[in-house]
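#onboarding

Welcome to the new folks! Below is a worked example of what a typical request in this channel looks like: someone posts a single protein sequence, and someone else replies with the predicted structure as tokens. Don't worry about understanding the tokens yet, we'll cover that in week two.

Example request:
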Amino acid sequence: MAEETKEKTAAKKTTAAKKTATKATTAKATTAKKAATPAKKTATKATTAKKATSTTKKTTTAKKPAAKKAAAPKEKPEVKAKEEVKTVVEEVAPVVEEAKAEKPAVKKETKVKEEVVEFDWDAFEAEEVDAYSADERNKLNDMYDGTLTQIEEKSLVQGYVIAITNKEVVININYKSEGVVPKNEFRYNADLKIGDTVDLYIENMEDKTGQLVVSHKTARTHLAWIRVNEVLETGEIITGFVKCRTKGGLIVDVFGIEAFLPGSQIDVKPIRDYDQYVNKNMEFKVVKINKEFKNVVVSHKALIEAEIEEQKKQIMSGLEKGQVLEGIVKNITSYGVFIDLGGVDGLVHITDLSWGRVNHPEELVTLDEKIKVVILDFDDDKKRIALGLKQLSEHPWDALNADLKIGDKVKGNVVVIADYGAFIEIAPGVEGLVHVSEMSWSQHLRTANDFLKVGDEVEAVVLTLDKDERKMSLGIKQLIPDPWENIAKKYPVESKHNSKVRNFTNFGVFVELEEGIDGLIHISDLSWDKKFKHPSEFCNVGEELEVVVLELDVENRRLSLGHKQLQENPWDVYETLFAMDTVHEGTVVKLKDKAGIVSMAYGVEAYCPAKHMKKEDGSYVAADEKMEFKILEFNKEGKKILVSHTKVWGEVEARKAKSNSTRTSKAVRNINDSSEKTTLGDLDALAALKDKMEKGK
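Example response:
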């Protein structure tokens, strides 16, 4: 009984243990299922699912041997029961512990569910087929990234040419698409071929069509400025492409930058045709960079200047004054000609080109012409050489005709005109001066331009000649007769002629009777009755005027003329008309300090002093007022007439007063006579006087 009881107790325990194990397994499986669902959304949940799966596998594995032991027929029931109980307890313990451990994980999972998280497909796929470890996968990723070029917009990259067409160049930069660059950006590199490495600038990763946009020109510009600054410091010789010509020089492509090549820096000698260098490659040196305006100046001349300087030293060391050299006309200026003597330049001044006058050097020499010159002077320090061309020929004055003498006639051309005269070249380098006074017999002032012009061919007479001083004076008027030789016959005194007014002076008018014959009309000989402050009040320049010869001085070539003498002297008539004390009517035409100028008959003007302008009422004669005037003075020689208005009315009053006084004295005398007779008692006489007076009424 006791044994049966023990067996029953053991069986109960086994059953309980199985139930507990079953519950634990069920709980674990449930936990695993719950954990498996969120594992599909998050990596954390995936890890939990892995644990649940491994736990399930362990439980299954543990169940199998337990079942085998229970089914073994050879083992005793007690031992069998004890082993089963032990096994189940061992299995249940870790399961319970795992279930306990997973409880908080479940809570965490519940919290994560509340957040919205993106599904990690990489983690999900890694659960199924991840055949690589983390290190292996990192290595593979690095290898993959190494096959692609990491590029960014607005950055510089390098690529190689894979194709060249007529218009474009295709370049591979290890990107998903190739770069396409216009072929004209490679004009500087005519030898471009497939496989060449070139620099590119990423303008845009993708345009509207998804194409990569790159530029070789921009890349060259960025790199060029770095390169150009380096070349300026080092003095390195570079090669550039001449794109086009511009004012004063050429535009050169250097490393993709447009640089300026001045015309003076192309060669040591002046270049007249810039077009010959266009579309050609040349070697240069960078001489200047303006960073502010991004201008680059290059020079080709600088490459050969060192060699030229050495040549100059050798040439200068062998120069001597008077040495004759052959050179090439390098440049022509207004002041002279530059001659290339084979590496060194010399100047022939315009005055040393010819013994004669030269307006411009182009009259004698042309560019690139070979000529012989003589060294006049040189300066070693300044490397200046003065050359001469005319010195190679004899001086024209030395070659002048020895028979030439004063009085001979010569012909030549007018080369220079000045105010005082004209220079006439009778032979190359031999000139004579014709003074303006020797151009015409006329006495009035004139300039050389009135007679001659530059280039005129004229004939002249030699007046003076000095071969030692190399001076000569000439005359032109000597070729025509002197009009003063027969002046007395042609213009005798009192003869009348027509003349032309030439100019004025304060004292008279100069008139011209003919070329070379001038005369003077004094201001007093212009009019008989009018006085002029200046001759211009009487006539104008260029006006025709009739004159009469008053006086002739042949020796001094002076001719005195008159104009008023053509008319009778009206003052002979005025002398009888305007006799002394005669009264005439006149009009005051001008007042000055109460004195007036009175216009009389026949246009004669008289002078009335201020004191003689007083009228009878005490006022004074006003301007434009017509009154009677008495002649006080008549001066025929001075042509003056003095008049008075006061004298006119003053004498009338005097005559009246005199007449009144005469009558009063007569009456008084009569009364006195009568009184005497009455006193004497002669009453009969008084009566008779009374009768007489009454009869006299």
